[in-house]
Amino acid sequence: MPYTKPMREEQNKVNDGHVQDTLKMIAKYRMGTNATRLAKRIVYNFQFNAIDLLPVVFARCVAGNTSKEPVLTPIEDKIITAVVDWTKKNNCTTLIDFLLAYLRQVIDMPTLMSGYKIKITPQKKFAINSTLCRLYTILCFETDNLQCARVFVYDLLRNEYACLERLLVAVASSWPAVLYKQESIQASPVGSVIEAVVMQRLSIMPEEEMTQKALIAMCGWKEHQADTITNITHQLVAMVQDANYTQLINENDPNPTLSQMAFELSKAMELLAVVMGWEWTNDVLIREHLWPVLKKWTVGLRSENGIKNGSACLVMKIIANVGVLGLAKNKQSVSEVMKMLLAVLQQPSNIIPLCVQLYTTDAVLQLSAAKPSLSHPVLQKWCSNAGQTIPASLTDRIQVLGSWLTNTNQRQMDKSKH
């Protein structure tokens, strides 16, 4: 693939001999051998030579240049070309796959190979991270792995990396399709949420005006509107209630599984919760939107036109995923959410479908850290009354919770004696 290269070759800071050694190592790499040393060498070259190329990207956007060719330095171009050539020659993506896995470990950890020491300023750290983001995205492009690149972006947002919005520009400038605007929220719930939350953040960051313009130019995104988050929340909740998006696979088995779209819906809600914070998640998402869905499902349990079991299971999964976020913020409020879930398990087992009981139990277990003494007795009783096959994955976790609670109580009793 052709690359757009910056004009200043003198920006390269590693001597050509070191780069040539790396290129030789790539060419000589043999499948089945440990690629750790080679991956470190490649990443080292990118780290040590890291340059902030956003000014080049911004200039391209200002000039109205719609080229989709990524912006790279000459060294980056040489190394990526060597990796791609090896992949084509061997008809194997092993080296790229290993590099992708290694990059996930080192992004935001700009350690350099021993023997070389440079001062890691905030500017240098960003240059390193944006460089590695470009490398990761281009390697995904070379293997036509759009899903992998989008998961990477999701994790950047989920972990709230420094200078996040600018890192997304680095991704978009390498492969615009990763962040390109979707036709509708139904086409990509996660993609729509990413656009909404990033543009909301940028709307209150006047110093990032160029970042916002770049994402609009490259990805087709729209400027943030006051009601964007409210609207997207309502759309997601509507999809949660639609059986077309929340099918259960093997609904009557001990291990029912949600569909791929249902999984993406849960991830979209989780990302929204991460960005909006626990107070909004608890007060708005859970209590105003998700809990009413469960109430409607309960009312329609004996009706063919009611909300389907898949929707109820998905709500339990979402509450578990977003509720965990509150454990570090406010355990008391999480325990109140858990009480609502425990009330479901305290219903007669012949009323609540087994699939919903299983997803509810899993959710309670995830939130039990808020108040184990509250959840364990109910879970124990549910196990004994369920009267149906319960997956070992759940019974084992309930036993572990009980053992932890017993040991904790014993330690407290021993401590009080002294």
Protein model, in words:
The chain has 418 residues and is mainly alpha-helical. The protein has 18 helices and 2 strands. The chain has helices spanning 16-28, 36-48, 54-62, 74-90, 94-106, 122-142, 146-158, 164-174, 189-203, 209-219, 228-240, 260-276, 278-299, 309-323, 331-345, 354-367, 372-386, 392-417, and strands spanning 248-249, 257-258. It has a two-stranded antiparallel sheet with strand order 1-2. It is globular. Residues 1-14 and 112-116 have low confidence and may be disordered.
Please count the beta strands (DSSP E, at least 2 residues each).
Answer: 2
The radius of gyration is 25 Å
> How many helical stretches?
18
Largest sheet: 2 strands, antiparallel
Helicity range:
55-70%
User: How much β-strand is present in the residues?
Assistant: under 5%
- Approximate shape: globular
Give the gist of this structure.
With 418 residues, this protein is mostly helical.
Describe this protein with a few key phrases.
418 residues, mainly alpha, two-stranded antiparallel ribbon, 18 helices, 2 strands, 1% strand
List the helices and strands and how they pair.
Elements: H1 16-28, H2 36-48, H3 54-62, H4 74-90, H5 94-106, H6 122-142, H7 146-158, H8 164-174, H9 189-203, H10 209-219, H11 228-240, E1 248-249, E2 257-258, H12 260-276, H13 278-299, H14 309-323, H15 331-345, H16 354-367, H17 372-386, H18 392-417
Antiparallel strand pairs: 1-2
Helix pairs in contact: 1-2, 1-4, 2-5, 2-6, 3-10, 5-6, 6-8, 8-10, 9-11, 9-12, 11-12, 12-13, 12-14, 13-14, 14-16, 15-16, 15-17, 16-18, 17-18
